[in-house]
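User: Before I run my own analysis I want an independent prediction to cross-check against. Here's the chain; please return only the structure tokens and, at the end, one sentence I can use as a sanity check.
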Amino acid sequence: MNHKVLVVEDDLENLHLYGEMLRRAGYEAISASTGWEGIDLAVREHPELILLDLKLPDITGLTILETLHAAMSTKAIPIIVVSAISKDDDVIKAMQIGAFDYMIKPVTYEDLIRRIEVALFSEDRKSEGEEAPVLVIEDNLADGEALSEQLGSWGYQVSWAKSGREGIEQAATGEFDAVLVDGLLPDIDGFDVVKEIRRGERLGITPIIMLTVLSGMVDRLKGFESGVDEFLNKPVAWEELRVRLRSLMHLRGMAKQRVALSEVVGVITNAIELAEATEPRHNQKVASISVILGKRMNVRGHGLWILEMAGSLHDVGKLAVRRDILLKPGKLDAEEWAEMQRHSEYGERIIRPVHGFSEVADIVRHHHEKVDGSGYPDHLKGDQVRLSVRIVGVADCYEALTSDRPYRMAYSRTQALEILRRETDQGHWDPQVIAALSDSLDELDNL
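Assistant: Structure tokens:
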């Protein structure tokens, strides 16, 4: 069952946009355009997360927060507040009341889905620190003591380095789940400290937050280029630090999970190819082609990872298809073809239970759908066939056409493209995806 997310937003354009983003990621979106309607839906629908605009026409977002956190039936629902500015006093108040996170408008798809995943899939939202080790690099005694005390009160284990060199040494030898570094240190510039930490493999994906009095855009860009994940100004707003630290650490955990998932996917991909006896690296090539086409069509971040995973796993359902059908050298009869087509449904059933793979499961199920409705298994048509599905479908077909098969030799890239263009004229493929493929042929030759 899809996770239910309530969006409380009075701007109808934003309300529609957020709803589309949520549905694209596999969530069930319900919406409210006023505060009182939002409270009513929260009580009646029991959503698993609420996306809450702070500025509403009838009552404030803060009132909604206080109301929902006071009610037994809704107080455990994580709430992500949305604000037009990051330094709004209401944002800090919202954190103090109990909001899980906050976002600054305009909201991007990748950031929204990433933060929702953090909020929904944290194993225990209450025990946030869980004795996680944090390195503080701060030369100012008062600031260092305040940070150590505050972090300790949230459940973190704090190591305090009082100079840049000491911080680099501790980062090179210790295990830390996060690093907080002052931007202005007496011995080494804080930006250079971050660069040194990032050069080592030990803390390559560890979140680094820079705490500094510097606030100019040049300084912020310099910080991000050096490897800083988040930039917070002094004096530190504790609730802002608290939510950013918690969010970044959960994101780090998700990144590690993705690495582990990618390794498992590699093993499964090998199993698919052994079972199907296909051209070597078919699934890896489909994944690579999908990512190349996705980049060409302005898919970014999380969306590219989804394309890579879906491309790698698009044929996983063939593990459930009889081997005599998979390996039959001649044409399949009607019954055998019907069973072969079910591999997309089998694939969805295999992938759907994997945490965070709902989008991947949708693509695996639908990668043989066509824009004109002639595909399978659900005969989707037009906009029902999402862009990610169209991309993986074209990638799969192109890779198959340009590879040797038991019943034919591989087509050249020119011949394959011509076949796909004819089928596009017949209504099968998205012309924009085919155009992206045509523009990417030289890059595809290097796979």
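Sanity check: The chain has a mean pLDDT of 84.
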